[in-house]
Amino acid sequence: MTLVLLGSVGLLALLIALVAALQRRFFWVRQLAFPLYVAAAVATLEAFTLIEPGFQPAALSRVFGGALLFLGLITVFRLLGLYLFDVHLSAQKGLRLPPLLPAVAMTLVYLITAFVTLRLTFPQFDLAPLIATSAVTSLVLGLALQPILANFFAGLVISIEKPFRINDWIKVGEQEGRVVAITWRTTHLRTRENDNILIPNSKLADERVLNYYYPHPVHMERIRISAHYDDPPYRVRRVLIDCVAGVPGVVDKPAPEVYVIAFEASSILYELRVWIEDVAQAPRIDSDVRGRIWEELRREGLVIPYPIQTLEIAGRQRSRLAMGEEAAAGPRPARLFVAEGPERGRALALDGAPVTVGRSRACALPLSDPNASKEHLRLQWEDGAWVMTDLGSSHGTRVNGQPAERAVLAPFDRIAVGDTVMIFESDAPRTA
Predict the structure, then answer these.
(1) Which value, in Å, is the radius of gyration of the alpha carbons in the chain?
(2) pLDDT in tens, 294-325
(3) Residue 229 in contact with residue 306, Cβ under 8 Å?
(4) How far apart are CA 69 and CA 74, in angstroms?
(5) CB contact at 8 A, 323 and 431
(6) Higher pLDDT, 192 or 325
(7) This prediction's pTM
């Protein structure tokens, strides 16, 4: 009898080890692991009764029959669960369920099946004391395992509410990463450094969770840069927006935007806002954009100033005679910068000789704007100032939004020809 019992225990251990080894290699064995463990126990019980044919009390026969019934029911329910969770909801409906939800559902099904099987196998057995004992035991265990149960129920809430899902990029406190697993106790995050962070589910229920992938994975990245006070904001804006084009990971829509944030002690602070596809790539994209900003600002002659303070002592106001002498000395250097239109970014240096702007290639600044005439306007130095003269164009010329046939230009006046906007820039000295 003892040898038979030891042999049965050894057979059970061998079958359990066989199932454990097979479930590492085969998907279906892994999914049906619990029914296979029950089947190993039933097979061991059957082997024991075959080896000891004289030892077959009625209770043992009922236990064997109940075990077979329990095995059949849980096998059917497990196959139904596989179809419901893996085929119907995941494959057909496209729903990605957290691993915790199917596991909890099948555990409840197994417990209910066990109580039903026990009731059918032993009708005279009163389940009330067992249920009462289970309730008291659950209360004691609940008090002892309060942190674990808090994580468990928090995991259930996460599975039902779905504030984040697998592959979402979230931030919890100071930690952020991609969600790679949601278990009954913890949530696993994979950081940019490829490290794994385990966060208890109860902490996720108490902390503020920032989900970068909801409602859409496209994320806005802010890049701040300082520019010199001498550099006009429209030039800086153009350079910053042009730096974004072609950077991997940056989307075209929504379009990038540039804002003037503050006038600081030694510079003007700008903020470039770009939209990126994946927040996980934000450091790399930020680095690429900043590198391009440095290159383009240098290429355009714009300055990123050092944090310095400049003391300027205002001189005396110049007399009209001095101003007249300066005007007679010759034209002041100036430029015509194209801020908007097909030729955006081009600049025309004005050195004193009259220049024409128009659609003709013979003009000093040729425009491809369809509303521009062949020779649309002329700029020339007259009586100590730069003067714009419209050359009888078909659609006219606007200066600072107003139609004008002739206008004396001041620094930063805007000259519009159709959809093309040009800004007059002058190095005129201040009068005070």
Answers:
(1) 40
(2) 999 988 888 888 877 666 676 555 555 544 55
(3) no
(4) 9
(5) yes
(6) 192
(7) 0.61
